[in-house]
Amino acid sequence: MRLGVLLDLDGTLVDSVYHHVPVWDRVLTDHGHEVPLDRIHRGIGLGGSRLVTWLLGHAPPDLDELTSAHDEGFLELRDRLRPTVGAVALLEDLERRGVPTVIATSAGSDVRAALLAALGDPQLPATDSDAVDDSKPGAELLLAACEQIDVEPSDAVLIGDSPWDVAAASRIG
Hints:
Elements: E1 4-7, H1 17-30, H2 37-43, H3 48-56, H4 63-75, H5 87-97, E2 101-104, H6 109-118, E3 126-127, H7 140-148, E4 156-159, H8 163-172
Parallel strand pairs: 1-2, 1-4, 2-3
């Protein structure tokens, strides 16, 4: 048995949740969708397409435009991102112990790169929503992450910060 660790990035290793909420609020409002901030907050952790569909109750025709506008707005804040307290120490400890570790994030690759830069660009394998057809709370992202580090899902632990992480982890056992 080989044990491994799957790490959520956005909100877990990088303190970014409160960057996403106002960006999503602006993007949605600019496109005529009024959504309460607390509802946006509860949806953070879902991939962009899933989040918008969950918030609006349907996939709008401009879904791709909304998610692109969010990513652009979020990336404008990249210099304000910082590691979550203890995140760098956790990564260093896992590396020192030789624990197979992989980043599994619902962010797309551009946002993932900005988040990793905020952590000092750790040299870890990673997978994101651009690499799979379905993001969290679906299982596909975590299954791809387990495959990257050659760990059975039942022998992996996910460290995350949202109920969507819990749901995805439950789906893979």
